[in-house]
Write a structure and sequence with these properties.
Elements lengths: L2 E8 L11 H4 L5 E5 L7 H14 L2 E6 L16 H21 L4 E6 L1 H9 L1 H14 L5 E3 L4 H8 L4 E6 L23 H14 L1 E3 L5 E3 L4 E4 L6 H14 L3 E2 L4
Parallel strand pairs: 1-2, 1-9, 1-10, 2-3, 3-4, 5-6, 6-9
Antiparallel strand pairs: 7-8
Helix pairs in contact: 2-3, 3-5, 4-5, 5-6, 7-8
């Protein structure tokens, strides 16, 4: 039976402000990408999400980013490699404290936003992220886009790599994500998102923005938690996957 992990970005609030419905999404996903305070999240939020995830058996991942609260981590930044490596390790370490307190561990690392897109092609920034992961834990899996420099360098450093796909993001013909600032970068029709999810899980394929069918073989599927109706859409996606004979489970 085909299987796939479902991950979502969680803990993306700050203080009294909350963006994601963490509790409800944790009833659907198998892995939680928890914001570590640089693009969103704070100590209390990280602790709460780790406790909820641990109680429900959901794997906890560190969603590391550029230091950009005002821009939600989606603005391009130039950070010196040594500084970026230290900040990645810092974020993982902060989340690990709360994961351990909840009886769990940080189980993987995933970059967020501008950093995620940058390390697809930028070898220097990708290397800095890998160095930061190694500083924190030399056995942590790294979640990223298939064919990215990040996963290539992580593999060379003997870190486990996990390929990821997006049902609600438009793809280029080269298999990269269409930048968010461009029209049509985010797929908003729920039915289309559900259909794409099953296609990705069952066939490892998706229609690019041009209409061309491209291969995107992934072990994990991301469900964005900051979109309207995210919880209901996540439930529909999981239900459709299971109806199609796909086993939904955390990646090995």
């Amino acid at each position: 039976m085909t299987s796939i992990d479902l991950n979502a970005d969680l803990g993306e609030g700050f203080g009294r402000w909350r963006l994601t419905d963490d509790e409800q999404l944790l009833s659907v996903v198998t892995s939680a990408n928890v914001a570590c305070g640089f693009h969103a999240g704070d100590a209390a939020t990280m602790r709460r999400v780790c406790e909820l995830a641990a109680a429900r058996g959901v794997r906890i991942g560190a969603q590391v980013s550029y230091r950009d609260l005002a821009g939600f981590g989606r603005r391009a930044m130039d950070v010196p490699p040594a500084e970026l490596a230290a900040e990645v390790a810092y974020q993982i370490g902060a989340l690990e404290v709360f994961a351990r307190a909840a009886g769990a561990r940080v189980a993987y690392v995933k970059p967020h936003g501008a950093l995620y897109n940058r390390v697809v092609h930028d070898e220097e920034q990708a290397g800095a992220v890998v160095e930061g992961v190694l500083l924190a834990d030399a056995e942590l899996p790294v979640l990223g886009l298939p064919g990215s420099r990040l996963l290539e360098l992580a593999g060379k450093a003997d870190l486990p790599v996990v390929t990821e796909a997006f049902a609600d993001r438009a793809y280029t013909d080269e298999g990269t994500l269409v930048p968010r600032g461009r029209e049509g970068a985010v797929v908003t029709d729920p039915g289309t998102v559900v259909t794409r999810s099953v296609d990705l899980a069952r066939h490892g394929q998706v229609d690019a923005r041009s209409g061309r069918r491209i291969a995107v073989r992934a072990r994990s599927l991301c469900l964005h938690g900051d979109t309207p109706g995210a919880v209901e859409l996540a439930r529909r996606v999981r239900g459709a996957l299971e109806d199609a004979g796909v086993r939904v489970e955390a990646f090995a």
